Amino acid sequence: MKHSARKLVSRRRWIAEHWDEATATIDGAQAEHLARVLRAEPGMEADVVAGGRVFHAQVAAVTQNEVRFNLTAELAADPALPVTLVLAVYKFDRMEWAIEKATELGVSAIAPVVARRTEKHLAQAAEKRAARWRRIAHEAAQQARRSDVPLIHDPVALAARVSAASDATRIVLAEQERTTTLRHAIDEAIVAANDEMPALEIAVGPEGGWAPQEEALFDANGWRAASLGPRILRAETAAIAALAVIASFLE
Ligand code: SAH
């Protein structure tokens, strides 16, 4: 069978680890998958993301652990949503699901934070887990055909993130909030920014919700509390719903 005209799984974008003006390479598990499972061969076409830019490319060389592409033409990149999701560390399986879905929905960055109601053993394991979170984001970005991979910050204590300087409009999702909806908070932020969508930071609490001291801390640092409606959502649902609301303003 001749493969030379075949496109290498047209629905995927391969995110390169290394690149220069004319070439890009994929290594590690991605390269192995390309070489062994998808049987990449020189001449096959693929879309490759290199340094946040998207290219049509052709496979130039394949080894067990590296696939090299020639970049043939640049495509228009689609920008991420201007949102950093500040996500309390909670049950890893659910949290990782939130990271995957937030990536699909276009989040720019995710900042894991240790909250008062983050379980102790999860708080202790969070730092090591960040490498896995980055892999999940990388995979999901590729699967969603994104032209970039969201930045996953190292986990920090909530207070450090809440009180850090920021140019973003900062919104904390809280099920106790009854008057301000997320939609309303974003509307106001857009008006304040002369009809431009401002950069946003959206905080989602752990399974047990924010502690009263944390709500006070958000408030003292200028974060606006917002509601996603009268029902109590799981944290991952809240994150997904919030990103969908934000996307509806832009897309
Ligand atoms: N304390 C709650 C559960 C918290 S839900 C309980 O009674 O069990 C986890 C997080 O999801 C919250 O901290 C909040 O950030 C977000 N969240 C859930 N439902 C929400 C809603 N209706 N509006 C805004 N945020 C919500």
The figure for the number of domains is 2
**How much helix is in the residues?**
25-40%
* Tally of alpha and pi helices: 7
The kinds of small molecule bound in this structure are:
S-adenosyl-L-homocysteine
Straight-line distance between termini: 42 Å
CATH architecture of the largest domain: 3-Layer(aba) Sandwich
Largest sheet: 7 strands, parallel
Overall mean pLDDT: 93
**Element-level helix/strand string:** EEEHEEEEHEHEEHEHEHEH
CATH topology of the largest domain: Alpha/beta knot
* Name of the level-1 CATH class of the largest domain: Alpha Beta
Count the E strands. Answer: 13
The structural class is: alpha/beta
User: What's the quaternary structure here?
Assistant: single chain
User: What gyration radius follows from the Cα positions, in whole Å?
Assistant: 20 Å
Shape type: elongated
Write out the CATH superfamily name of the largest domain: SPOUT methyltransferase, trefoil knot domain
What share of residues are in beta strands?
25-35%
Poorly predicted spans? none
